[in-house]
């Protein structure tokens, strides 16, 4: 007799030898029989939930009270942004209090007695079970996988490795890890401001009231940039080094830093919007506003390019400029803060120069 013909007998024999043990007897917990223990557990749960609520309140207070630029040192970690540390700790305590409170509540106070819902038997008839077993056995033997194990192993390997062509392009497509591009540009002390795309230098004496120039650093504009630095570096420069130069009436400039970093009312600012990086290239001469065409962020040039409308959260960085011995506009230094869209940590030691006042 074949093996599958004995299946019903084996199942029936197993059912006879292994009776349903049923549920174990319920063991009362201390809180179930001692009211004072139940009260203590209740107080503990309330304390955990209260701790969570207090941590949530502390998170909100810290968000509005602590200076986002506040920094400090933590033993074993080093210099960190304390604003982010406090927010992380308070949020973590808030979530921990909720989790521990819920678990303690469930394990000490909620009913823990197991319940059984009686259901009808789902067992198929003996004829159906035998037919399914026969077909499975026939299919297994017909595939010869029981005799040719190499097929089974190679098929498993092929199916397992099939995922690699799907995963590798995604992972590789993420590109290299960010480098200093998040913080630095090609602007350096002494580089002339060159008109984009002609590459002509700009004399301060030739800049009239209300004039607007789109400029790039010397050596990084026009065909020269592609020939000297290559297409990739030239395009990268175009995306991060672009600057807008405007001459304002010095009497309407309200920021002393803006006057000090400009030259006789001529000021230069990064064109890379601090929202998502679109070029801020629209200047309104009557209002002295710079507009980003992508999402309508608006910056006031008389207030050090402060954001006055739109989703951008940070002013455009100013490029410190002066003139050289021949009267051409040059950069005093590079940008003293990262340009472009804001991200979680914008400061880097040594990038922001100390206040010279």
TrEMBL record:
It holds the Pfam family Rieske. Signal peptide: none annotated. The chain crosses the membrane at residues 45-66, 86-106, 150-172. GO terms for molecular function: 2 iron, 2 sulfur cluster binding; metal ion binding; monooxygenase activity; oxidoreductase activity, acting on paired donors, with incorporation or reduction of molecular oxygen. It is found in: Cell membrane. Its main location: membrane. Keywords: 2Fe-2S, Cell membrane, Disulfide bond, Electron transport, Iron, Iron-sulfur, Membrane, Metal-binding, Oxidoreductase, Respiratory chain, Transmembrane, Transmembrane helix, Transport. GO terms for cellular component: plasma membrane. It is a multi-pass membrane protein. Residues 1-30 are annotated as: Disordered. Residues 266-330 form the Rieske domain. Belongs to the Rieske iron-sulfur protein family. Iron-sulfur subunit of the cytochrome bc1 complex, an essential component of the respiratory electron transport chain required for ATP synthesis. The bc1 complex catalyzes the oxidation of menaquinol and the reduction of cytochrome c in the respiratory chain. The bc1 complex operates through a Q-cycle mechanism that couples electron transfer to generation of the proton gradient that drives ATP synthesis. This is Cytochrome bc1 complex Rieske iron-sulfur subunit.
